[in-house]
Amino acid sequence: MKKTRYVILGLLRDGSLTGYEIKKCIEVRMSFFWQESFGQIYPELNALLNDGFVTETADERKDNSRRKKKYAITAEGLSEFNRWMGEKNEKDTIRSESLLKLFLATDANARDIVDQLNEMKKQNEEKLLLFAFYSKQLSEYADLHENHKYIHEVLSLGIRQCELYSSWSDSLLQRLKDGHLR
Amino acid sequence: MKKTRYVILGLLRDGSLTGYEIKKCIEVRMSFFWQESFGQIYPELNALLNDGFVTETADERKDNSRRKKKYAITAEGLSEFNRWMGEKNEKDTIRSESLLKLFLATDANARDIVDQLNEMKKQNEEKLLLFAFYSKQLSEYADLHENHKYIHEVLSLGIRQCELYSSWSDSLLQRLKDGHLR
DNA sequence: TTCTCCATGTAATACGTTACATGATTGT
DNA sequence: ACAATCATGTAACGTATTACATGGAGAA
């Protein structure tokens, strides 16, 4: 089942946002465990409006041209969000082409594997920088996250996962270079 | 882009398999980073046959009734697999409803969060048992994995990831119970 | 002026799961 | 005899990405 609406509702609890802002928010803060595209967000906002879970405030200067629309959550929206919170989750899924390649690799692919591992290490180190930035940003809004104790915990899990991946790939690279992999 | 064919080709390098066996194999050994369903595998096997990347040996007793079909990789299939190995990967994606919920939770959701965390801990501990089983199974076929050095490494990463998630949820639960979460 | 980012939206397409249909084999 | 698992396949459905169309605002 599609979860787009719940992410949107969840984010709107802290104040109204435009569709664009919602997208950015998911991208910057949640990309380590969630993703949504414009093609899902905009239609879903209209569906939510239709269901009475959000209200829309259009920036109505000009006339016809499309302008900024801010969405706010309604009481019904909030209770729908809380209902979802108590529902059973579907299984987590991970799709990692890098791990797939490593898993399937033989000695014939040794050269490619080194490239894969380097790329993996690089990507995780970049993600760590992003996390650090976001983490710092968070602590500047102490009041807001007063109400969101778990964000830090999830973030800290993300960081530790990145560290795991990055150190794992690094150690594998080392052992491959030194030629004593097993 | 769809990757189903490469998983199939990758697995077939160690000997012919039926579609059913391929499915089981992915399920048991790769579920921590990859998944495929019958609805992808069977049509893809026919596509691969059509492209000359695999050959089919049907178990042709009886006549009309559908029977076991073993697939083997061809030289062209092998080179197609090796080509893919050198290609750039698409970004890894994770979809975790549990982390999404935790990320979005406030104090209002405290009760639900405890359930989520317990479920998360349980699932990761179960996965660890599966990993242990598979790991043991692997060491019994030393000859086969001689050629697949990286399987162990990927497995070990999977184990450490599960341990991370399980100990993270456990520690969060502890702190929630003791009431000193920040 | 041109580029980038903000901003909204739709349509086409691709991807993936689930349910269904069918039947053989193996173990209890 | 029955259930579980092995085994193959398709059709329907739902979900998600991508490309496209459109245009404003601010910066270089």
* Overall SS class of chain A: mainly alpha
Strands in their spatial order, largest beta sheet of chain A: 1-2
Global outline of chain A = elongated
Q: How would you classify the quaternary structure?
A: homodimer
| CATH first level of the largest domain in chain A | Mainly Alpha
Description:
- Two copies of one chain form a homodimer.
- By secondary structure, chain A is mostly helical.
- Chain A folds into two domains: 82 residues, Winged helix-like DNA-binding domain superfamily/Winged helix DNA-binding domain (Arc Repressor Mutant, subunit A); 82 residues.
- Helix content of chain A is 64%, strand content 7%.
- Chain A is built from eight helices and three strands.
- Chain A has a two-stranded antiparallel sheet.
- The longest helix of chain A has 30 residues.
- The radius of gyration of chain A is 21 Å and the shape is elongated.
- The termini of chain A are far apart.
- The interface between A and B is large, with 58 and 58 residues.
- Chain A binds a DNA duplex (28 and 28 nucleotides) through helix 2 and helix 3.
